[in-house]
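Exercise 3.2. Students should predict the tertiary structure of the chain below and write it as structure tokens, then compare their answer with the key that follows.

Predict this chain's 3D structure.
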Amino acid sequence: MGVHEVRWCFHTTAMVSDYELTRDALIRLVGLRVLEDSRIENPGIGRRGGMTWVGDNIIEIGQPIVDGGAAERFVSRFGSHMSSIAVQVSDIDATVDFLAAKDAPVANRPEHPIVFTAPAGTAGVVIEWFGDEEPQDPRFGATIPPYAAEPLLDVTAMAFAGIVSPDPIAAAHRLADLFDRGVTFVHADAPAGSPVAGVSMGDMTLAAYAVPADADESLRLWGYAYRRAQTSSLGVLVPDLATAKRALEAAGVALVRSDAEQIVVDPDVTGGVVVVVVDELLPGDPRR
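Answer key:
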């Protein structure tokens, strides 16, 4: 019999109103490579787009194509933004049983190997659990396409997947329990807009941030008004933050903020994706 095992981050996900706008912006900014451009009519997903490669991992970008479908409902409610995190598991049926025993019930199962759990059981974050070998995934042998254009940033890795939570430490412990992996760090006194806790996904880190105190602070920190727990940002790793900032400024890329540890790109630049640029991996990341 199989066992529940989170092997790695399968992908982060962004649902946006204009797939091509976001795709092209991330090609220019971070060297995104398109792995697929497909249409899924199943209302449980209902999107055009698909998996793309950034650094050393996948971000799925989708545009709603089915009225009332999951993608359309998300964009209607939250606008163009990061929507979920997907993890690769060894045995989807064993994972479903494990999650049920942990009070994390299935909310949607659009296909047998694809399971979405109810956010109420996963610290308010939408999690996809995937138990198949995706043939377009480079980790299963697919070829990574060349750059479509020379990017502004020399992105060497996807640094982290970000979430926000009213209680990021509790959220990190809850997700670590469900992933059956560890909390990699806790910085309870982290300043606003910096990660408070981290969770191992096997190959990279899930970074948990605090929901800002109010809409004004949220816009100042992220360019997006967070009010609840949700997936929030895409972290990318570059060799040197100062060099990255000069390249962005020279190209006229609008920034929300920057400091010695991170640069937050204005999500208006990317069609909704909050990109956080760093030059160091988070504590406990397996690639450090």
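Discussion points: The mean pLDDT is 97. The first helix runs from residue 19 to 30.
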